[in-house]
């Protein structure tokens, strides 16, 4: 069976549909690659793509999309709620089928080197690909964002893994790595007070002593005039979605605030949602492998 890898590049554009469509076209131009999903958020001014293919296919699609992003995105004119340091901000590779994490790490290095050499964008390896422990966490790499990148790259501890220690004038830098599946999960609050969202984000995130495998920040959704707790869950098996939701609800209540709703950005593993269904419905003796219809339709799962 073919080796399959998932790639989830994030681009610093969530408003101009023609640019988002051009990025999608670049991904689709690679034979064999499947563009599973792409979504854009105008408040974050960011789009998230999910594509799948063999290592060679996924790597080429990520590179061509990065090349298109350099052509069409100018970070000197970019404004959005989500932190960013690059036109193509982050490129993670995720093992899916018949491929190891080590192979995804090797792929991430190949793509990072090609982006630096051919596009002139300094590349920093992160997560499982990180060249040093302090470079593993994406938030640490991105801290200071595009505006502070020129000074940051001059520091010995933040020299890029590939490319010169000079930010691309309009495309910044890129973080490339390999990681396990991540769930991008946002919770919207019925308040316009960003300080409340920031306070809750600090409480729930692992780095501040909160829930393990949780990264979070507070952002403002200007169009809706509400604050959001924007979350990346790096291991939904160890810290499930419902646990994060319940903790945010409890903390929001301290401020007299409630949850308006939540959203998942891009694709999420089915078990991440099944776990929440099991919890909230208090399902007894539930077997997702046998009782979820779609699971029964997968090859090898049917008794017939």
TrEMBL record:
Location in or out of the cell: Cytoplasm
EC annotation from Swiss-Prot or TrEMBL: 2.1.2.5
Pathway the protein acts in: Amino-acid degradation; L-histidine degradation into L-glutamate; L-glutamate from N-formimidoyl-L-glutamate (transferase route): step 1/1
Superkingdom of the source species: Bacteria
GO CC, alphabetical: cytoplasm
Domain Formiminotransferase C-terminal subdomain residues, every copy: 181-296
Predominant place of localization: cytoplasm
Keyword Transferase: yes
Domain spans labelled Formiminotransferase N-terminal subdomain: 3-180
EC class name: transferase
GO molecular function: folic acid binding; glutamate formimidoyltransferase activity
Single GO biological process annotation from the record: L-histidine catabolic process to glutamate and formate
Family annotation (SUPFAM superfamilies): Formiminotransferase domain of formiminotransferase-cyclodeaminase
UniProt xrefs under InterPro entries: Formiminotransferase_C, Formiminotransferase_C_sf, Formiminotransferase_cat, Formiminotransferase_N, Formiminotransferase_N_sf, FormiminoTrfase_cat_dom_sf, FTCD
Name of one Pfam family that matches: FTCD_N
Residue intervals passing through the bilayer: none
SMART domains xref list: FTCD (SM01221), FTCD_N (SM01222)
Keywords, sorted A to Z: Cytoplasm, Folate-binding, Histidine metabolism, Transferase
The name this protein goes by in its record: glutamate formimidoyltransferase
């Amino acid at each position: 069976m073919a080796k399959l890898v998932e790639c989830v590049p994030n681009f610093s554009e969530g408003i101009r549909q023609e640019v988002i469509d051009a990025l999608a076209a670049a991904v689709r131009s690679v034979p064999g690659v499947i563009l599973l999903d792409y979504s854009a958020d105008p408040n974050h001014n960011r789009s998230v793509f999910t594509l799948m293919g063999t290592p060679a296919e996924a790597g080429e699609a990520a590179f061509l999309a990065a090349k298109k992003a350099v052509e069409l995105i100018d970070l000197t004119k970019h404004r959005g709620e989500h932190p960013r340091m690059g036109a193509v901000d982050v490129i993670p590779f995720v093992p899916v089928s018949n491929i190891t994490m080590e192979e995804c790490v090797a792929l991430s290095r190949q793509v990072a080197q090609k982006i630096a050499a051919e596009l002139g964008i300094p590349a920093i390896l992160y997560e499982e690909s990180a060249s040093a422990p302090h470079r593993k966490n994406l938030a640490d790499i991105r801290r200071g964002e595009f505006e502070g990148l020129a000074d940051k790259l001059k520091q010995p501890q933040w020299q890029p893994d590939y490319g010169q220690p000079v930010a691309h004038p309009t495309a910044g830098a890129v973080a490339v790595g390999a990681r396990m599946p991540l769930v991008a999960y946002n919770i919207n609050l019925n308040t316009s007070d960003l300080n409340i969202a920031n306070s809750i984000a600090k409480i729930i995130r692992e780095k501040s002593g909160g829930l393990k495998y949780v990264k979070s920040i507070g952002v403002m959704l200007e169009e809706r005039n509400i604050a959001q707790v924007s979350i990346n869950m790096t291991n939904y098996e160890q810290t499930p979605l419902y646990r994060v939701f319940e903790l945010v609800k409890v903390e929001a209540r301290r401020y007299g605030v409630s949850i308006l709703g939540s959203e998942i950005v891009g694709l999420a593993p089915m078990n991440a949602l099944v776990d929440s269904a099991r919890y909230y419905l208090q399902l007894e003796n539930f077997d997702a492998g046998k009782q979820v219809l779609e699971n029964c339709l997968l090859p090898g799962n049917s008794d017939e």
